[in-house]
Every structure is written in C-alpha cells, then in structure tokens.
Amino acid sequence: MRDDAFLSYNVSMKAAYLIEPGKIELRDIPTPTPSKGEILVKIDTALTCGTDKKAFLRGHPMIPMPGPFGHEFSGTVASTGKNLKGFKEGDEIMAVHSAPCGKCWYCSKGLFNQCLNIMDTKILGAFAEYIVIPGHIAKRNVFLKPRHLSFEAAAMLEPLSCVTHALTGIGSVKGKEVVVIGAGPIALMHILLLHHRGAEVTVLGRDHNKLSFARSFGAQRAIVLSEAISSGLRADLLIECTGSVDVWELSPSLVRRGGTVLLFGGCKTGTEARFDTHKLHYEEITLKGSFHFTPRDVKEAYRLIKEGIAVERLISEVCGLSDIQEVFSYLAQGKGLKYALKPSK
Ligand SMILES: [Zn+2]
Ligand SMILES: [Zn+2]
Asked: Ligand 2 center to residue 220 CA distance, Å?
C-alpha cells in the first residue's frame, strides 16, 4: 500500500513502450505504487544502451515486445513502500535494474550473475517519468548518489557494472598488452578501465574517427581492423566488443600463446562461430564469455564512478523523453554513442 501522506507525484505518467522493432510509443499510464520494501523513483536521467539499440533494430530475447523500455537510470526517491530501509523521499539515487535471488543453486555458489531468476525479475521501463524498484533490487543494488555527481554520470552504473564484471577473474592487467575490438560505448568503457588499471591498450575498429576518439579514452594505439592480422599484434588479453561472428572467429589469432579472449559482445541468437582447434589446444588459448554482473561488480562500478572515472564523456547528447523515437533512429543510423533522455526536458 502507498503511504498516502506523500502524494507529491502525479497519478499518471508518460512511459515509452517498444512495440516492435523500429517502433516506440509514448503512453500515458497510471504512475505505479510502491509496495512493501519497494521504491518509487522519479527518473531524472535514463540512458540508451547497446542492448536497447539491438532490441530496436531486430528484437532482443531479454526485452519482450510490446513492453516497457530502458534500464539505465538515476533519479530521486518519490515515495517508498512500507518497511523500506536505507532510503527516504527526496534521496537522489543510482541503481541497476536487477539483483540475484539469493536462493537458487548458482546464488548458493556465489555465481550471482548466473542466478536462474535474475533476468525474470529485472525491471525495464526507465524511459518513463517514474519506475518502481522492487524489494530484492532495493536491498542490494541501489545507492545514494553523491551530491557532487551528475545524474548523467550516476546513470552509467549499470553498463559500467557489466565492464567491471568482465574484468573480474582476469587478474591484474597492469603492464599487460590488451586489445579491445570495437569503439562503441562498451568498448570505450573497457578502455577507460583498462587504462585506469595500468594496461597497455590497443583499440581495433573500422572507422578512423571512432578510433581516434577511442585513443582519447586511454588507448595507446589504434589499428584498423582489416590491418590487424598483418600488424603482427599478439596480446595477453583481447576483449571482443562487437558481437559479430566474424570478429569472434578472428579474435584468437590476435592473442599470444597462453592468451585470453574475452567474448563480451553478444552475437545474434542462433549463430555459431568456428575456431581452429589446433591453435586453442596447443597454444592454450582461453575463450571466456561474460554476461551481466554480480552485486560485487556493481559496488566496484559505484566506487569508480564516485571517484570520478570519466564515464560521462560517453554521452553524445541530452534530449527530452519525448524525443525517444528520433534518438533511436539516430542510433540506428550509427549516429552518437549514448543519449541521455530526461522527462523534465
Ligand atoms: Zn545497459
Ligand atoms: Zn539466484
């Protein structure tokens, strides 16, 4: 039940729905009510993400259509359900849109990102005026936004958590040769973090302008992808951020013996990749997937953002929520990296 003493928000709100690939609708719907342990957040900023772009272009198995859209956000607590500890009306917060159940076999082994329930209990609908954060997320993955931090930087918590997760388990990267393939937002976040941790980063991509932008995030070298093989590049670690099968297949040939290929970019559902078994076996190449994040990764991302890692530079433009269809058509044309959508604008 809502604590009716705080009816400081509107009873109806604007919320974007992804109807089918290419089509977004801005609907008027009732403002949700926080139940026990939940938080109603007035969205300040929601960011577009590579996953949203994929869903807009071709559909995505984790984003049902038609349905609420958007998952990277920051805002202000508008109201709380009963028994909510740690947050109160007016608090500025940053959060991610999922949390593990803590009960399944994977959670019992500490593999929280592989939780059997994490995807079914995630929330979508950040491209809206309000969103309700359920109790299991409120308990583990919501943080007070430091006053000095902008809402735009705070909304980067979710994508940066994916990146901190990918690098967990890799060990120290200090002084290591790391290749990042791709120059989109996720690749740039990898470069930022790798540079921050003392790695020697080379970025590979197709577009010269994007490559020179990537260098400004801390990559020492930039090479056009088509010249990667002839360049004789041999990295300790390679991070694939494009999600293209041909790039997945190319990746093992760019690491040294004993090297690791981190397959970060998800390919289209149903696709298959081929690898040289001889090379993987005799050269002891590790192929490693990476998906989502654990609460520990979120805490690490929170710490990095709080300390001022320059994630805000990834935002190409700040727009109004009503511009959403236009924003996604820009993304579909390859224009811009990430857009910040603000209901108040
Ligand atoms: Zn995202
Ligand atoms: Zn679980």
From this structure: 40
Q: Which spans in 47-181 are helix H? A: 50-58, 105-108, 135-140, 151-154, 157-167
Calculate the alpha carbon distances from 104 to 96, 176, 235, 290 in Å.
Answer: 20, 37, 37, 20
For the whole model, what pTM was predicted? 0.94
Instruction: Give how far Cα 208 sits from Cα of 90, 186, 222, 269, 315, Å.
Output: 45, 18, 9, 29, 20
Q: Give the pLDDT confidence of 243-274 residue by residue, as tens digits.
A: 999 999 999 999 999 999 999 999 988 999 99
Ligand at minimal distance from the CA of 48 is 1
Residues 202 and 269 in one domain: yes
Q: Could you tell me the distance, in angstroms and rounded to a whole number, from the CA of residue 281 to the centre of ligand 2?
A: 34
For the chain, how many helices (H) and strands (E)? Answer: 11, 16
The stretches in the chain having pLDDT less than 70 are 1-9
Number of Cβ atoms within 10 Å of the Cβ of 238: 27
* 203 token code pair: 């970025």
Half-sphere exposure in the Cβ direction for 220 (13 Å, CA): 12
Nearest ligand, CA of residue 55?
A: 1
Ligand approaching nearest to the C-alpha of 294: 2
Number of Cβ atoms within 10 Å of the Cβ of 105 = 10
First to last CA, the chain: 31
**CA gap 256, 44 in Å, rounded:** 45
Q: Furthest-apart CA pair in the chain: how many Å?
A: 69
Kindly state whether residues 285 and 313 are assigned to the same domain: no
Q: State the residue range of the domain holding 237.
A: 169-289
Q: Where are the alpha helices (DSSP H) in 100-207?
A: 105-108, 135-140, 151-154, 157-167, 185-196
Residue 133 phi/psi, 5° resolution? Answer: -95, 120
Counting the structural domains of the chain, the total is: 2
